[in-house]
């Protein structure tokens, strides 16, 4: 189980309000696409869930437990860039996922543990189609292959939540389609909750079971930082839900909780 | 005609171009030396190469009459020992402090300004203090090198570590890493190639501090010898010693460059030749 609940969250940087009064419930196992214009707080929201940023007010919980306010192994992440370690090979990158957490002092595994970890890492590398490249350094991989490696690395820890920050934004359309074909069955098989920030609406609707749009609803030209972003659209794309129509808004979280 | 910045010399031309300035300098010296000798057979300023070769051979093979040691060898061993100790300690300090300052915001808040101030102290200005505190022996010379060379290494490594994208540090944490394992597997390995490059750049200053310290108070060493024979205007000793020091420094630099490229191939992928 990995349900995320966001309650009355405000994010302010100085006197600039980025996110105002966010309430959101994300069901376990759903694939949530977050869309919206640049600078509307999508990535800030992702960093909140990741624990990289902290809310100014409000709380976030994962399965009822408050989210730790620093990144941990519960939440895997794939960034648009710099997601993989440039000094490790493909195998080394995935292997590091096991070594970093399981070996507290040497940060390396030896003997049988290492062989077991290599076996698991190789399975993941094969699953994302990088088996022929396992001894290469990331600099020798294309952008798409680097992102596949980042996904394999994030999946190694079997996180409850997988966070994707414009993971395919820098890829060409063909590679992007390949990545979609890779990601969707992986998600279906592993059943983790996925939150993906994207600029690509087709991608958001194609992959997600739910699409959330962030935007600023109020704007003060004299004080651009006065109002933050809110959820403007919340579309349920699952099979048994009402047909999504633009403008269809889910009831706010409070009333849902009361039901 | 192509632009000058687009003309790339090939293999043979590259070697020729590299050798040309050296040959030119050698030629200038030989002619100058011959010219002065012709005017004054006792000239000491530009001894001919044959004379320097004789002196060098004598210093490198015959034991000194007073100490019974082969001078060039004992000088080289004494100097290299000081240099290795000084550079080695500075590297160790530089790496440890640099990574700490780069990874830990609290350490940076505390140590950053201090290192910035200390690195502005001219090391030569506190040499007398070092002589008073550590005596005239080996210690003061090694400490001078460390004080002169460690601060730039600390700052450079700290900046290198801070330049690691925050995404990588976050990623490591999402893989279950602690501060220590992040340092060990993410920060340190990415700082190492830069460390070697920084140490390469610090070989020059390290020799500067070594020779300065030896010139003032020592009883052996390359710098000591140069400043000793200066009294007799013995250019036939000084010039070969300078060439020898240059060669040693060049070999160290070359070895470190090879080591870095061999050990960290990933760090040199984008290198332009």
Automatic annotation (TrEMBL), chain A:
<dbReference type="InterPro" id="IPR003439">
    <property type="entry name" value="ABC_transporter-like_ATP-bd"/>
</dbReference>
<feature type="domain" description="ABC transporter">
    <location>
        <begin position="4"/>
        <end position="241"/>
    </location>
</feature>
<dbReference type="InterPro" id="IPR003593">
    <property type="entry name" value="AAA+_ATPase"/>
</dbReference>
<keyword id="KW-0012">Acyltransferase</keyword>
<protein>
    <submittedName>
        <fullName>Lauroyl acyltransferase</fullName>
    </submittedName>
</protein>
<dbReference type="GO" id="GO:0005524">
    <property type="term" value="F:ATP binding"/>
</dbReference>
<keyword id="KW-0067">ATP-binding</keyword>
<dbReference type="InterPro" id="IPR027417">
    <property type="entry name" value="P-loop_NTPase"/>
</dbReference>
<keyword id="KW-0547">Nucleotide-binding</keyword>
<keyword id="KW-0813">Transport</keyword>
<dbReference type="Pfam" id="PF00005">
    <property type="entry name" value="ABC_tran"/>
</dbReference>
<dbReference type="InterPro" id="IPR050093">
    <property type="entry name" value="ABC_SmlMolc_Importer"/>
</dbReference>
<dbReference type="GO" id="GO:0016887">
    <property type="term" value="F:ATP hydrolysis activity"/>
</dbReference>
<dbReference type="GO" id="GO:0016746">
    <property type="term" value="F:acyltransferase activity"/>
</dbReference>
<dbReference type="InterPro" id="IPR017871">
    <property type="entry name" value="ABC_transporter-like_CS"/>
</dbReference>
<comment type="similarity">
    <text>Belongs to the ABC transporter superfamily.</text>
</comment>
<keyword id="KW-0808">Transferase</keyword>
From TrEMBL, chain B:
<feature type="domain" description="ABC transmembrane type-1">
    <location>
        <begin position="76"/>
        <end position="260"/>
    </location>
</feature>
<protein>
    <submittedName>
        <fullName>ABC transporter permease</fullName>
    </submittedName>
</protein>
<dbReference type="InterPro" id="IPR035906">
    <property type="entry name" value="MetI-like_sf"/>
</dbReference>
<keyword id="KW-1133">Transmembrane helix</keyword>
<dbReference type="Pfam" id="PF00528">
    <property type="entry name" value="BPD_transp_1"/>
</dbReference>
<keyword id="KW-0812">Transmembrane</keyword>
<feature type="transmembrane region" description="Helical">
    <location>
        <begin position="199"/>
        <end position="218"/>
    </location>
</feature>
<keyword id="KW-1003">Cell membrane</keyword>
<dbReference type="GO" id="GO:0005886">
    <property type="term" value="C:plasma membrane"/>
</dbReference>
<keyword id="KW-0472">Membrane</keyword>
<feature type="transmembrane region" description="Helical">
    <location>
        <begin position="114"/>
        <end position="136"/>
    </location>
</feature>
<feature type="transmembrane region" description="Helical">
    <location>
        <begin position="83"/>
        <end position="107"/>
    </location>
</feature>
<dbReference type="InterPro" id="IPR000515">
    <property type="entry name" value="MetI-like"/>
</dbReference>
<comment type="similarity">
    <text>Belongs to the binding-protein-dependent transport system permease family.</text>
</comment>
<feature type="transmembrane region" description="Helical">
    <location>
        <begin position="238"/>
        <end position="256"/>
    </location>
</feature>
<feature type="transmembrane region" description="Helical">
    <location>
        <begin position="142"/>
        <end position="161"/>
    </location>
</feature>
<dbReference type="GO" id="GO:0010438">
    <property type="term" value="P:cellular response to sulfur starvation"/>
</dbReference>
<dbReference type="GO" id="GO:0055085">
    <property type="term" value="P:transmembrane transport"/>
</dbReference>
<keyword id="KW-0813">Transport</keyword>
